[in-house]
Amino acid sequence: MSRHAWIDASAGVAGDMLLGALLDAGASLYGDAGRAANLDGDTVLGAVRSAVRAVAGDAVRLRVHHVTRAGLRALKVDVQLLDEDPPTRRWREVRELLGRVDLPAATAVFTRLAEAEARVHGIEPDDVHFHEVGALDAIADVVGCCAALDRLGITKVSGSPVALGSGTVRARHGRLPVPAPAVVELARGWQVASGGAGELATPTGMALLRTFAQACEQLPPMTLEAVGIGAGTRDPAERANVIRVLVGNPAAPRDARPAGDATDETLLLLEANVDDLDPRLWPGVLAGLMELGAADAWLTPILMKKGRPAHTLSVLCRAELVPAVRARIFRDTSTLGIRHAERGRVALDRAVVEVRLDGVPTGGAAAGGAIIRVKVGYLDGVAVQAMPEFEDVAAAAREQGRSERMVLQEALAAAAQILNTARG
């Protein structure tokens, strides 16, 4: 089941506020909205605490409590530092800490931060001193948000335009204009506005939003499951200093047909030549890349110098997913370098239609028989492609004790009935 999270950053965005909103959404989703501070280890808060502990050890502690902001209830997360003087860390040191957990998105967030700070200061990303960003509280915010999204089962994220603030803020090297230079770098390509006085968006919060969210949009259609509200530290009179996260299932009718033509889009192609990876690992590598949201991932056999057999790993993805995809490739393969290039793609509009094996479309769970999802491609609003999801076919075959070949034949017949109905 797909689950969409929409981040309302109209009042700004900061790491601790987003973490609070995600934890509050988890409490709402799992029926414990009034007792978020007392959730046990099998919940979103438990998963977050475990991930933060794996990275930071006993150097930090998460304290969660309810507050009000402009009269609204919200969840506040305080990261308590048990080390009174945490060290300033370079990107390479932060990267080593993040290697303690299986959260590629956390590495992708800090990669964005390092690249933004490097552009601002005119240095290489590995030489960036993170200062406040590299402190344990910011690491806890990033790791916590990534763990919360994973535990909530979020498959897609989008967000609103962001309020950045105005004025000045005191930093390590003196006063800086608001929005801060790193925030401006991270906000490139996103809709922004001033929104009020003071620093409303932090580099950590902006990096989290840009890494997670695939689109800047108003609230998309969805069947709402949970709402989370995360609080900032200040409580100004002129606005509610909160972030909201709305979680739900995309509300696309199963029998709806997209009215548009094929979509022409620009994607990024990432490629790496690998000649020393155990071939048994490749299926997991490809599956992991697709789970991250890649549009496609595949292998091509090649012959390298001195006659060595090898593979080219190719991954097609949107630009905003490149940091996470790149981090996953470096983590899961033995490559030392990745090349990339823009590629144009024309894709049919698509929808998923559920059918029983007798080919009858359903509006929900069927009383009997297996339900198979069929991916349908539309051109000018007319279905021209229909293919059953093989995972559903395999699951149905196991449940019924039948061969996958026979179930697949029935599923293909059901898919053909969709096309025949569209053309007839």
Ends apart, CA distance between termini: 31 Å
**How would you spell out the order of helices and strands?**
EHHEEHHHEEEEHEEHEEEEHEEHEEEEHH
Total strands: the figure is 19
Strand content: 25-35%
Q: Number of DSSP helices?
A: 11
Compute the number of structural domains: 3
Give the rounded overall mean pLDDT: 85
Radius of gyration: 24 Å
**Which class do the helix and strand fractions yield?**
alpha+beta
| Sheet with the most strands, sense and barrel status | 5 strands, mixed
Helix content: 25-40%
**What sort of overall outline do the alpha carbons produce when their principal axes are compared?**
globular
Strand order of the largest sheet: 10-4-1-12-11
Poorly predicted runs of 5 or more residues: 32-42, 253-260, 359-367
Question: Can you describe this structure in just a few lines?
Answer:
The protein is an alpha+beta fold and 424 residues long. The protein has eleven helices and 19 strands.
Short descriptors:
single chain, Ubiquitin-like (UB roll), 11 helices, 19 strands, 31% strand, alpha+beta, four-stranded antiparallel sheet, 3 domains, Alpha-Beta Plaits, five-stranded mixed sheet, 424 residues
Structure description:
The protein is α+β, with helices and mostly antiparallel strands and 424 residues long. Helices cover 33% and strands 31% of the residues. The protein has helices at 15-29, 44-56, 91-98, 104-121, 136-152, 181-186, 203-212, 282-291, 322-332, 390-400, 404-423; strands at 4-8, 60-69, 72-81, 156-159, 162-163, 165-171, 174-178, 192-193, 198-199, 215-216, 222-231, 242-250, 263-274, 296-303, 309-317, 339-347, 349-356, 371-379, 382-388. Helix 1 (15-29) packs across helix 7, helix 4 packs across helix 9 and helix 10 (390-400) packs across helix 11 (404-423).
